[in-house]
Amino acid sequence: MSEPSKPQGRKFQLPEHLKEYKGIWVIVEQERGSVHSVSWELVGEARKLADKLGVEVGAVVLGADSPELNAICGDAFTYGADVVYKVTDPVLADYRTDPYTRVMTDVVNTYKPEIVLLGATTLGRDLAGAIATTLATGLTADCTELDIYMDNRSLAATRPTFGGTLLCTIQTLAYRPQMATVRPRVMSMPDRDDSRSGRVVEVFPNLRETDVITKVLSFIADREQNEAQLAFADIIVAAGKGLGKPENLKLVFDLAKVLGGEVGVTRPLVQAGWTGFDRQVGQTGKTVRPKLYIAAGISGAIQHRVGMEKSDLILAINTDPNAPIFDFAHLGLVGDALTILPALTDAFGKRLSVNRLAG
Amino acid sequence: MHIVVCIKQVPDSAQIRIHPVTNTIMRQGVPAIINPFDLFSLEEALRIKDKVGARVTVLTMGPPMAETSLRKALSLGADDAVLLTDRKFAGSDTLATSYALTSAIKKLSEEEQVDLVFCGKQTVDGDTAQVGPGIATRLGFQQLTYITKIESIDQGAREIVVHRRSEGGVQVLKTALPCMITMLEGTNTIRFGKMDDMFRAARYGLKTWNKDTTGAEETKVGLKGSPTVVSKVFVPKPRAQKATMVEAEAPTAEAQAAAAVEAIFGAQPKLADELLARAAAGL
């Protein structure tokens, strides 16, 4: 990354008392004992940044004390953390903004990390906005790239803006910690190293449930619902306006079924009511990083592109050979998605069933 | 019940173009609209007004031209509108913006206690989702983001029950007023304004406040009050390589599909193995 242009007319020197802030933290997002994969992606990214700065990676694990939570602390080391801040209290069992914010504000003020990273998830964005306010520091949302500018050892957080038409690099120069949220699946998953371990700093915040105004009455898990799980799908077949009419979505579902994948759509389809928001891929929908992304009848607008361009392999099908999607897809097929989708479903079906017979 | 809805006037991001030579945003001729995510929150506030009765004040911070968005909100049924505008606010990041808006909400609360603040989930230009949480934290309000449904609101007990989207499911939360809510998109259908509201909106003398009206401190707004610094703005680099076109033996869909399957399996042998293994296992 090139060096920054110097912004003018403001003070950008880090005040003396903030120079003691050291280390890069990741707030590990765990909900009901399972960790969101973005947290491990971030521990991997923090490892790279920390090695550049020559500092430690800290993972903050919050929740009610349990064997699952201990296992999560262990996992944090295997993905690259040097130290785990294990913050336990029964009040932290379910995520709620208020107690999480209070505790994190205290922990940051006590241990003084220079960088705090969170996933740009519903939890991460909710919590980050609150903590940055209580700490009166800078927060850069939804980053797609992180780097360290070595001249002043500051975090350079790059994020899309204006719906992805532009990227901007944002820094927090005179305040600490520097905070950023990062979209899931933008950073790659680090390899596990089971031989790694580190030290655990236990924090007991001593909260009282009676002090917390918001109560969790119940939790309706998605796995008991019929919601699409796009963010974790290995294969996604996605449809755009080129599909013509809602009935044709069936062609996409058929192919996804043969491949054991999920169906994604572009924003105009959601707005037109073809399908629910849970299937929207793009700037205002989900960011996905499947092994295979088949884009049928999608032109490749930047708003969609930022949500899927990190896919391992993108096959684009479009009647227009000049569609922008062919500029960033890996494989392109000029043709009508309406006839090619069923043909693909057949071709994959045959290919996979032949193997089954042979096997 | 007094509800404040914070909205933002934004350029219609779907219509923004980048100048091919200078790589800068071409805003000329791009229509200004109410941030689409704010409309879901405004609608929810108006539904509460319809159901249990409330005064809905719509608040925006921006240049004088943002008045158009306030009038639009009034035409949909908001009762009052406040435009917070001051050159000193220019360059505010999310921390400074939430401070300035909070100063206005506190002033509104002096007139009539504010029970609920609605914000958009995020804006379509900045996309940060930080101003709502910033306001909630500064006001000491309970913070309820990504709300999919307001199940009930009890004015007597000052209690509210909501459904909140989380990554793995939906949290059903019960909390007390006052609180700050951001609605998830697609949760409600935005109404058309009534004719008399449209006439009223056109004539309405909206309040225009500045930094001094709300008593905001100068060091906490604008560039001075903003910890973040934009050090670089640039256009995303196009991927160096264009797509490899799938060439089929014949121009039929069958031949194209067969060629595409071979190309995919060739490019991703590991994926091919996984698919074949899964198929062999009968999954």
Automatic annotation (TrEMBL), chain A:
Pfam families: ETF, ETF_alpha. One of its GO terms (biological process) is fatty acid beta-oxidation using acyl-CoA dehydrogenase. Residues 24-216 form the Electron transfer flavoprotein alpha/beta-subunit N-terminal domain. InterPro entries: DHS-like_NAD/FAD-binding_dom, ETF_a/b_N, ETF_a/FixB, ETF_alpha_N, ETF_asu_C, ETF_asu_C_CS, Rossmann-like_a/b/a_fold. FAD binds at residues 266-267, 280-284, 297-304, 318. It comes from the Bacteria. Keywords: Electron transport, FAD, Flavoprotein, Transport. GO terms for molecular function: electron transfer activity; flavin adenine dinucleotide binding. Binds 1 FAD per dimer. SUPFAM superfamilies: Adenine nucleotide alpha hydrolases-like (SSF52402), DHS-like NAD/FAD-binding domain (SSF52467). Its cofactor is FAD. PROSITE patterns: ETF_ALPHA. Belongs to the ETF alpha-subunit/FixB family. This is Electron transfer flavoprotein subunit alpha/FixB family protein. It comes from Azospirillum argentinense.
Automatic annotation (TrEMBL), chain B:
It comes from the Bacteria. Gene3D superfamilies: HUPs (3.40.50.620). InterPro entries: ET-Flavoprotein_bsu_CS, ETF_a/b_N, ETF_b, ETF_beta_N, Rossmann-like_a/b/a_fold. SMART domains: ETF. Residues 22-218 form the Electron transfer flavoprotein alpha/beta-subunit N-terminal domain. GO terms for molecular function: electron transfer activity. SUPFAM superfamilies: Adenine nucleotide alpha hydrolases-like. Keywords: Electron transport, Transport. PROSITE patterns: ETF_BETA. FixA and FixB form a heterodimer. Belongs to the ETF beta-subunit/FixA family. This is Protein FixA. It comes from Azospirillum brasilense.
